[in-house]
Task: inverse folding
């Protein structure tokens, strides 16, 4: 059974087989963690992204990692929060599920996630953490390490609490 790790930090520095990017459906780069990843990775990743011609919300595609220490990048556009009754929960679950599947199908053993959709897209962090960790618990046998990289201490606390609750 793989380790589930919750840490505070910057996902661009993670030395794992795959880091996940909270992208947009045009795969065009942007702000937040998407901007940070593309800035640190360099232009080759955006060039690779362009070849997909976009990616639907909840789906996932893989590119190289450019200058990053990670092995590759999985790009998944999360849903925009619209109050919770527009399928956001299922769509966010799909982001995690499809990212895990893509990594597992390539026999990758370590993967790091940011808190997808909880920034610009406004998804409530408590609910998002529950979905992220719940999917992690389902896939942990396929990986050595599943890392959740929280950007703030507040998010780190929410994840830690959500994890304790899920394990009970
Ligand atoms: N490492 C880890 N987490 C980070 C980092 C980082 N370097 N930088 C920000 N975060 P967001 P979204 C956290 O807004 O809500 C973009 O423009 C951040 O604090 O990056 O899915 C895309 O192009 C938050 O907790 O992604 C899309 O258009 C989390 O990452 C749109 O934003 C996600 O926040 C996607 O919005």
Result:
């Amino acid at each position: 059974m793989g380790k589930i790790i919750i840490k505070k930090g910057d996902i661009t520095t993670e030395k794992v087989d795959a880091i996940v990017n909270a992208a947009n459906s045009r795969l065009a780069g942007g702000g937040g963690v998407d901007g940070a990843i593309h800035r640190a990775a360099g232009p080759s990743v955006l060039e690779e992204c362009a070849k997909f011609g976009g990616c639907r919300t909840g789906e996932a595609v893989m590119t190289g990692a450019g200058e990053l220490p990670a092995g590759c990048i999985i790009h998944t556009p999360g849903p925009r929060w619209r109050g919770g009754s527009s399928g956001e929960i299922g769509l966010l679950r799909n982001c995690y599920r499809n990212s895990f599947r893509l990594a597992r199908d390539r026999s990758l053993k370590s993967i790091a996630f940011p808190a997808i959709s909880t920034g610009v897209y406004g998804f409530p962090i408590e609910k998002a953490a529950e979905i992220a960790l719940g999917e992690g618990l389902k896939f942990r046998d396929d990986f050595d390490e599943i890392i959740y990289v929280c950007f703030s201490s507040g998010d780190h606390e929410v994840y830690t609490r959500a994890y304790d609750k899920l394990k009970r």
About this structure: Residues 10-12, 22-24, 30-34, 36, 78, 114-121, 149, 151, 155 surround AR6 (CB under 6 Å). The helical segments are 32-41, 43-50, 88-105, 125-139, 153-167. Residues 3-167 form a domain with the Leucine Aminopeptidase, subunit E; domain 1 fold (CATH 3.40.220.10).
